[in-house]
Structure formats: structure tokens, C-alpha cells
Amino acid sequence: MQLRNSHLTRLGQTVFDALVVGGGINGAVSAAALSGKGVRTALIDRGDFAGFTSMQSSNLAWGGIKYMEGLEFALVRKLCMSRNRLIRSYPSTVQEIRFLTTVARGFRFHPTTLWLGAWVYWLIGGGFTRAPRRLQRRALQREEPIIDVRQALGGFEYSDAYLHDNDARFVFGFVRSALDRGCIAANYVESLGGRRVDGLWTIRARNRIDGTEFTIRARTLVNAAGPFVDEHNALTGQVTRHRHAFSKGVHLLVPRLTPNRRVLAFFADDGRLFFAIPMGARTCIGTTDTPTDSPHVEVTDEDVDFILGNINRRLRLDAPLRPTDIIATRCGVRPLAVKASEDVARGADFMQLSRKHVIESDAASNHCSIFGGKLTDCINVGDEVCAAVEAMGIRIPHPDHRWYGEPDDSVRREFLHRSKLMDLDGLTSPDSSEPLTSRLWRRYGGEAFGMLEAIREDPRQGEILIRGTEYIRCELQHAARREMITTLEDFLRRRSKIALVVEARALRESAGLMDACEILFGSGARDAFEAYFASGGN
Ligand SMILES: Cc1cc2nc3c(=O)[nH]c(=O)nc-3n(C[C@H](O)[C@H](O)[C@H](O)COP(=O)(O)OP(=O)(O)OC[C@H]3O[C@@H](n4cnc5c(N)ncnc54)[C@H](O)[C@@H]3O)c2cc1C
Fold first, then answer.
1. Do 26 and 374 form a contact (C-beta atoms < 8 A)?
2. Taking the model in full, what pTM does it have?
């Protein structure tokens, strides 16, 4: 809480060059890029960072193979290049993964057409990933015995990438990077709107933890409120050429279906691509694509039936998956940028709506709005927001600074060397086959050196704290100091993915969770614990 409190004080005291409203992926990269290049930046979110859409994605950094059907080759090329850049810049976090795709008899495309499509996709992506591979029915069965090949004509395998530690953790990495470069940021601070006074945006803000209100002043305003961009524009009197349409997407987490680290891809009954994605000891199945009017959505029985029905019809499991097998759910809306004048009818094919992002600036009021966007395209969004802010007259002191990416490989090698000297290499948690050191590096980068130091001084810091998870004591200490954890859910669902992989009941009983709460919340531990489980624990 100390970190948040000190930032709250400074939010009201400084005149910023840029105030970013919304700490999902678009706001987080905007803040990281602006502050990395030396712009005095503030970032607020009315919930937790990545607490809305950016924690509900499919966790993929992908070129959008499915958009080829709509002949959106320019978009696919752009997304493939963004994916490649993410893989290069975050080698331990954004990793290539194979998609084993089954093609059913009677599908609208012949397997040969789809296989050729996979090659075109690979070429559009600059041949950056492993090449596609075609599989006959028997090979498909051999490689992944749980696939029900009785109705299959064959399949193929191609590559994209996935976010190893979950979308919300990835987003927080940008928030942390912004904080490290002087950004003043706070979660649970809502913008109530505002106006320009004497050349400055004067925004009323409310601290949603204690209800207090204060004013934030900035020369430019970046509206990164995701599905609430239009709502926030109404609060500041902005009229834009674009607006959002929403499409709901649901994922279900179930026990791990296959030990292989690859995505199983199918075409669902509605003809759309449909995935079973590995997530630690679980599998994440989805997604749906349903037009909706409101950003506030929830999982319905119909969604569950659709997802479980589709997966059960395509796999040969000992017993079909049932609703009782669901460990956690993910549900959100894709904010899709459409022209303000465009009438998107309810029955319209949302797959035909472009998934491109649009950054719309108004130089007269020093304001920009970010519409649409994808996690995959986040580096471009950061760069484009910097360009928009500069065009509004804000000086960028360090325009060439590279604001994203993991530390240099030599730093990683030094980290691994030091951990080897400490003999930490062999430490793995019972729930993870991954050595502790690579996990620490992936999650914390250069900050993991401090953890080695802590373990050297007190070996207890290297012990698993919350039973049934892979989190060690010094990670909790680090989270308490550096990750602005305000509620238990911030830690369990977003800084970590514990809430997605451990059932709420097991988690409540897990030895060590109360110790973790004491580290995170001190004397407020019991209240934080009770509040989390009272709200359903996910
Ligand atoms: C089901 C699904 C699957 C997806 N899969 C992928 C994928 O695999 N790969 C990919 O690249 N993309 C994927 N996407 C798209 C991607 O997740 C979203 O486009 C992206 O997360 C949107 O980020 P955002 O920052 O615009 O919005 P958000 O993450 O929603 O962030 C906006 C933030 O603004 C805050 N806010 C709103 N109003 C205010 C206010 N008044 N004051 C302060 N804060 C405010 C909110 O609390 C919120 O945290 C998927 C999306 C969905 C729904």
C-alpha cells in the first residue's frame, strides 16, 4: 500500500505532460512508452491494472490467421510483424507455440486449401516461425491421441505465440516499466471526467478505496479506457469519428487435457477457429464471439454448453467434460473500432469487423483516444501514442529510447550464472516442471537479482509459501513492495494466475495463503482474505 499511497499524493501535486486514463494493455504501453522516452506521465485505472478486458484474452500473440478468410492480408502482415517483434523482445515471456489443427469431414474448406493457407500465413509472417506441417489422419491420432479423428480428414500444424505468464501479468510488466521510469501511477483511481482550463486538462479523480476526490492536471489526455473509451469521451466533451462495438468472448479452464505443450485448434460448429490452450496444469478452452451492447458481460449456460459441447465432440476423453469440471472462467468483450456513423446491426457478422486499432487525436484539445487494439499489437500502440502526443506539442526528450523488451541476454546469463553458484537450479515446485530460476527471470527480469540476494541471506525466502502453487516467499515480499497490490484478487488473478489454476475452495484452505496475506496487507490480512472469498474467489 505504501507504493500506491505515495503515488496518490503525487498525482494531485504535479502538472503532467500526459495523463493516461485506463491501465489495460493500451494504457500500460502508452505509459511505458511515454515515460521511457522522458515524458512526465501519469496513469490511473478505476480498477486494478489489467483488471478488465486485458485479463480475459486468449493469451496469444498471433498474426490472426483467421482474418485471412476476410482477405485482410495487410492486417495479418502487421500483426505477424508485431508478433515477431514481441517474440524477439520478450524471449522468455512470449514464446512460439504450435497449433495442431484438425479439419473435419465436410468442412467448408478442403484440408489442402487450409494447409496452403498455413503456408501463405507463414510467408506473410516472414518465415519467422517454424514452417507448417501437414498431418494425415493417422499421424494426427499418433501425435495427439485425445483427438477424435473419426470425423477428421486430416490436419496441419502451424506456429503463433502465447503469453507464458498470462495477459494481465504481461500488462503489469509495462506498468512496472513505466513506474521505473518515473511514471506516477495508481490503481483504483477513477477519472470522473473534466475539461481544459487555461491550456491544461483538469480531471476530477476519485480514489475508489476511500472515496476521496482530487484533481489531476495534464497538458495532454490519453483516453485508453478500452470498452469505456466512448463513455469517457462523453465525460470530457470529446466528439470522435470512431466508436466501439463489442463482441463477447468466453474461455473455460478445465484440468489439463494433454501433457503436450501445444494448442489444439478446431473449427467449431459455427465455423470459427476454436482452441484448447495450455495454461500450467490446466487447459483453457474457447472462445466465443457474440455481439453484445454492453461491456459488462458474464458467462451464461449457453456459453458453457457451446464450449463444452464443441470440445467434447472433437476429443476422445475418458469422460466428457461437464460444467463441474470448470475450475475458473474468463469472460470479456473485444472493443472493436468502427466508424461513428456505422450502424452495426445486432445480426451483423462481427468477424467481418476489422480488428485494427485506431488512435484518434484532436490537436485543438490535446486529446487522443485509443480504439480497438490487441495485446499482440501493443508495441505499435505505444509508439503511435508517443507520436500523437508529440504532434500535440509535447517535447519528447529521448525519442530514440527503446522502451520495451527484456534486459539484454548478457544480464540473463549473469542471472542464471549467479543462481547456479547458489545451487538454485534444481529447485522446482511440485506443480511445475520448470526450474525456479527461469521462472523468476521470466516474471521479474532484472528485478530477480534482488530475490537471489534475499534467498542467499535467508534460505526460507526460497520456500514455497502458498501450498499448491509455485510462489515462493520472496516473490510475495517483492509483490508487496513493487506491484501495487491493493486487493487479494490483484495478486491471485492478475500478478499471478493462481486463481485460474487452483479452485477457490482448495485455495481458501491452502496452508500459507494467510501468511501471504500478512506479507501483502499487514494488519489488514484477515479483511483482505475474507473480502476475496466473500466475492466468490475468482
Ligand atoms: C475473449 C477475448 C480474447 C482475446 N484474445 C486476444 C489474443 O489472444 N491476443 C490479442 O492480442 N488480443 C486478444 N484480445 C483482445 C485484447 O484482449 C483487447 O483488445 C485488449 O485487452 C484491450 O485492452 P484495452 O487496454 O483497450 O482495454 P482494457 O483492458 O479493458 O483496459 C481499459 C481500462 O480502462 C479502465 N477505465 C475505464 N474507465 C475508466 C475511468 N473512467 N477511469 C479510470 N480507468 C478507467 C478500466 O478499468 C480498464 O482497466 C482478446 C479479447 C477478448 C475479449
1. no
2. 0.96
